[in-house]
Amino acid sequence: MSAQREGLVVAHLGKGIAVELDDATPPVLCQTLRKLDTVVVGDRVKLTLSSPEQGRIEAILPRRSTLFRPARGNESRPVAANLDSVYVVLAVEPACDFLLLDQYLAVCENSNIDADLILNKIDLPLPADIDAELHYYPTLGYRLHPVSANRQIGISELAHTLQNRASLFAGQSGVGKSSLTNALLPDKTLRTNTISAISKHGRHTTTAATLYHLPGGGDLIDSPGVAIFGLAGLTEAQLAWGYREFQPYIARCRFNDCKHVTDKDCAVRAAAEAGEIPLARYRRFLKLREKMPPPSRGG
Ligand SMILES: Nc1nc2c(ncn2[C@@H]2O[C@H](COP(=O)(O)OP(=O)(O)O)[C@@H](O)[C@H]2O)c(=O)[nH]1
Ligand SMILES: [Mg+2]
Ligand SMILES: [Zn+2]
Q: CATH homologous superfamily for 4-60?
């Protein structure tokens, strides 16, 4: 009987799951025990080796965070585990989607995941109103990193903040997530090595999630499927809590189950009307609330 080892899930492949052992050998291709929950990139697992290159995942170690995406019906599926930070990437072009930004931030606030903002393409002029709207977020404690992936501006500072943590870039298509990943992983061989070590066991499709070790320290999870994650699994109350500046007001609403919409003596709405909470943020909250799937009846 082979001894149990611990490892880190670095890629999800059609034929199995690539797990890195703690001794820097190439990843091992693993199958999972049928009874196990979904194993995702970033998971730490217990496995047994059947050969130096093949193994079986026996257990998933406890996660410190899980990122979900919506699945069929009202379900949600885990897509990444043990993330420390989500970096929401924005740019002047395509236009900043503040509704999407707020959605990401609300998910992170409720998932034990830090969130930062990256403003990419700072080589292009940014309209003053967009700039002002963006600069509201640091007042809530979200750091804002101005960069240009193409011009290599702010990249080493960004690399520094990515150290000692597992991160993921989120954002709409075209904002520069791939360009940033390339700027941070300039050594093509570094990327190709991980991939080829894994893909000799089977085709590594571009849609597969992959965890990269950054040369300056830290891990970056690249997963096209999670670039836009939804409000999967969030309740209405959690959405409101995900608006950080609402938090001190929520306890002051007259009703415990206040929806913060038309409810009598809602402290959140009152604060928005009084300008203590930016009206734009409150309006986006109302919009996201309407986009939420109806709560499941649960039997
Ligand atoms: N002007 C400018 N364009 C950029 C910058 N970074 C990326 N782009 C361009 O933005 C487009 C989309 O980039 P990409 O990395 O594919 O975005 P993704 O869809 O988020 O992965 C490409 O044409 C890039 O060349 C930048 O710093 N400045
Ligand atoms: Mg891309
Ligand atoms: Zn309220």
A: Nucleic acid-binding proteins (2.40.50.140)
